[in-house]
Amino acid sequence: MIDPESLVDRVQEGELRIHELEAEADFDTAAEARRLLVERETGADLETIGDYAFPAERAEPNIENMIGAAQVPMGVVGPVSVSGGAADGDHYLPLATTEGALLASVNRGLSVIGSAGGADARVTKNGMTRAPVFRVNGVAEAAEAVEWVEDNLEALREAAESTTSHGELLGIEPYVVGDSVYLRFAYDTKDAMGMNMATIATEAACEVVERETPASLVALSGNLCSDKKPAAINAVEGRGRSVTADVVIPGELVEDRLHTTAEAIVEANTRKNLVGSAKAGSLGFNAHAANVVGAAFLATGQDEAQVVEGANAITTMDTRNAEDGATDLYASVSLASLEVGTVGGGTKLPTQSEALEILGLRGGGDPAGSNADALAEIIAVAALAGELSLLAALASNHLASAHEDLGR
To answer: What is the pTM of this model?
Structure first.
């Protein structure tokens, strides 16, 4: 077995570069050598970072220059009671976070939703996008390129789908800005989040566009996709899965369990989530959907940077007149661009794989895409629970006291 200290000596002497260590030793020894190097050069103690529970080789597709693992506390909320297009029944949802009181708040909301008979949820749109940008000489060539693309969608579909055994090209939306042509490709990537799948497929289609039109490819991503950035196009057109969850909470349940009224929650939502967000120019018209999305992403191996799009959500609250004359609460959350998968990427790591196993959603679904749809629906219901709980706390002026009671 190669001594990690000797590898560190060779790096410091300039004989080896830090990213070349796996060529000299097994993955765990390479990671240990990097920790020793960092400890020597910074004086830091990396004992805890080096205490990870899976072979380093398992993470090779997910990380470069590995030194260990970040441990984020993981809890569970539930049951998440959902009647969905793909998810049905009660599910426990793992959430990884460092924000105290978050899981307690979500659990409170889920308890109320469960007592109301559960929430409905549906994936209303599905399409992972990639939007390359092309250069043309002017608007005449731009129009020529766009017309060719619109007339030859099947040829582009054949080229794109030749790169994948699962993905399907759903459509291409063109946009022209001066001498720039953007083509926003949308794919059904089944149970994969599908960003890499969409990128590789789009590259193959772009070769056809360049060959058959005056357009020259400038960048495979022209930011009109739009990935990992706040973008109105994702709020309007969606990206990944667009999913909505809703529930009607009886007025008596609102008063007994949330200690406020339907009218007070509706007013808080209107003035905070709708008017306040509009005044701020926000793309997210919600209380804290990103909290649940981010915690679920970390737990289940999603791309954590795509929480940016996952927070693209609108929360609505309204009063409903019950037959007995009571005032019930209608609550919904619509996440426009929730990018999730149950295969590929970080979902294959041992911890994240176990988290998906808790949900019964590890790996591909039958039919293909059903597991990722179910995950999206469950996350949406949990986000709705978080919205309900926080708005109720605000409406009843209990937010600060709740954090104080939990010592957070």
So the answer is: 0.94
